[in-house]
């Protein structure tokens, strides 16, 4: 009887130790990690990518990625399937960044209407991981390209550089209300250029884009440079709306980001 009790006690202690070990190990998890937070009784899901070699003893550069229309929802995972997420899966060594991937819940809205989500997920990531405050970058595609232009102009004190892909200036998707959210951007190309003239910008667009005309990127880059900025653009001949695969996989965007500090 005593032997059984002793064995049970040892087994219980072993389980407790194992649980403790799992708990400690979970803090060191890397890869694409499922995250969430609660606000007003509602759960907001997002993903954080943590490089395999992550070490909290040093400061890491970070990227905020804003997805497009098709990845909206509440599952938290769809945004990983397009754009920067797949580029990381193809070549993780090329992306030594902590990457924050929030999800916009309402397709018929713009990212600036969800500015609280963008800032909250960034804030939580900075609390949980060792992020270099001088090397935080912003990029996104389509609706997220628009979000990169606008969120970039709204928080010039945060981003060290931005990379909008097939984006546009004016709010185009505002059919659905965002309860408690912000207002869609109603300014002009000149308004964005004024705020972004001191921001390092590398914009991408397919010249055959049938969804978002390439002229939007041309106009924004030209307007920034006319104000003394140094924005650059890469245009892909014959490429339709999906210019993000080429931008994220073929260009040396990670190295360009790392050239810039705030």
Structural write-up:
- This protein has 262 residues and is α/β, with parallel strands linked by helices.
- Helix content is 35%, strand content 21%.
- The strands form 2 sheets. It has a 6-stranded mixed β-sheet. A two-stranded parallel ribbon has the order 7-8.
- The N terminus is likely disordered.
Topology:
Elements: H1 2-26, E1 31-39, E2 42-50, E3 60-66, H2 84-90, E4 98-102, H3 115-128, E5 131-141, H4 143-154, E6 161-165, H5 189-196, E7 202-206, H6 215-226, E8 232-236, H7 244-250, H8 253-258
Helix pairs in contact: 2-7, 4-5, 5-6
Compact summary:
This protein has 262 residues and is an alpha/beta fold. It is built from eight helices and eight strands.
Strand ordering within the main sheet: 1-2-4-3-5-6
User: Compute the gyration radius: what is it?
Assistant: 21 Å
Structural class: alpha/beta
The residue fraction in helices comes out at: 25-40%
Distance between the termini: 68 Å
Essential attributes:
globular; 6-stranded mixed sheet; alpha/beta; 262 residues; two-stranded parallel ribbon; disordered N terminus
């Amino acid at each position: 009887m005593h032997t059984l009790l002793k064995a049970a006690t040892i087994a219980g202690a072993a389980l407790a130790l194992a649980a403790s070990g799992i708990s400690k190990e979970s803090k060191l998890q890397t890869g694409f990690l499922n995250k969430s937070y609660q606000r007003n009784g509602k759960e907001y899901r997002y993903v954080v990518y943590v490089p395999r070699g992550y070490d909290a003893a040093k400061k890491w550069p970070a990227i905020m990625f804003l997805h497009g229309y098709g990845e909206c929802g509440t599952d938290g995972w769809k945004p990983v399937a397009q754009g920067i997420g797949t580029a990381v899966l193809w070549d993780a060594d090329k992306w030594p960044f902590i990457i924050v991937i929030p999800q916009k819940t309402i397709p018929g809205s713009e990212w600036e209407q969800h500015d609280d989500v963008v800032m909250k997920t960034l804030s939580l990531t900075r609390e949980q991981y060792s992020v270099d405050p001088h090397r935080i970058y912003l990029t996104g595609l389509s609706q997220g390209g628009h979000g990169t232009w606008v969120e970039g102009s709204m928080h010039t004190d945060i981003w060290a550089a931005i990379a909008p892909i097939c984006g546009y200036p004016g709010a185009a998707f505002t059919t659905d209300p965002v309860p408690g959210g912000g207002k869609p951007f109603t300014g002009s190309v000149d308004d964005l250029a004024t705020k972004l003239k001191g921001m390092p910008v590398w914009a991408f667009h397919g010249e055959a884009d049938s969804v978002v005309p390439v002229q939007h990127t041309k106009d924004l880059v030209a307007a920034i440079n006319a104000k003394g900025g140094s924005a650059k653009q890469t245009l892909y001949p014959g490429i339709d709306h999906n210019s993000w695969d080429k931008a994220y996989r073929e260009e040396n965007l990670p190295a360009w980001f790392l050239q810039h500090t705030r």
